[in-house]
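Changelog entry: the Heptosyltransferase record was regenerated in this release. Current contents:
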Amino acid sequence: MNLLVIRFSAMGDVALMTPALIAIAAKYSNVQLTIVTRGNFAPFFYNIPNVNVLGINLKKYKGMFGLWKLYREINKIGPYDKIIDLHGSLRSRLISFLFWFQKVESFRIIKGRKEKLQQTRRHNKKLEKLPHTVDRYLNVFKKAGLDAPVRKGPWLNVDGESKMFAKDFFKSIGLDKKEGQWFGFAPFAGHALKEWSFEKSKRLVKILLEEFSDCHIFLFGGKDELHELEILKDKESRVNIVQGAHLGIRGELGVMERLDLLIGMDSSNVHIAALLKKPVIGIFGTTHPLSGFGPFAQEDTGVLQVELACRPCSIYGNVKCWRGDHACMELIDPYDVVRRIRVLQNVNTLW
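Regenerated structure tokens:
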């Protein structure tokens, strides 16, 4: 059986496919999984049995003509028995519709929009725990007749090339050998409202250096954030910049694999580190882990948050603060992160 599995974006959501794919591949050895996603996300699926990745550049497939072209290219590497639509976007729905003419049955993710709206509305909120994204993915496979339990992590495998990128990076900054504690810090997110204030991030870096005299800090960010990363580094020799645009996802995976823990906002970096089964501290404000996007398998220990009646006000963080003071993030202090690190250090046998 050959399944076409579709999920184009976003990075964290694509990475979260791996626990579901590993579960299906482990239980159904006769099932071939063809993944269609952005080409730069292909390293997430390394070493999962019976998985082939069709990595694409969506910019080449704009408009209806582009969609038709994409459909034909996907069709070339078929045939497919079923379509597993884990995205539920207009593009993935139209591709499923085109395969319908070949009588290929499709199964689509249920996103729970109504329940999420009940969580995020301003008044009369209904904050109940919703299925995690991984469970929603597995439910799509279940509807297609493939039921499988989640297996033990890690759920991301780091390939040899990623390890080599990381080795070269550490060598370039004079860290040939691991000594002390290595903390990752990803201060940015896809939307500004999901981020701490920059001053809090600056304070955290300084406090970490003071509280953990043996630690090295690795700052994660993109090329557009290099200036801010340089400010956070402040010429400290124990603070290093991991620039995603320079290393690529492969390099970042290799670096993350060597960390002792990662601190970040509700962003892809936290999800990826959790899938590597690294302890994480995700700082959640606007969003809420009960919406189904908590760090996988660390929804409790891996989340730092304060309870406010207005939370969550968004699923993705693309809104404005109703209160106007961003209290959900401002009430979380850098020393709260330090205290959580010490808790994690005392329960590190879990990892």
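The longest strand covers residues 32-38.
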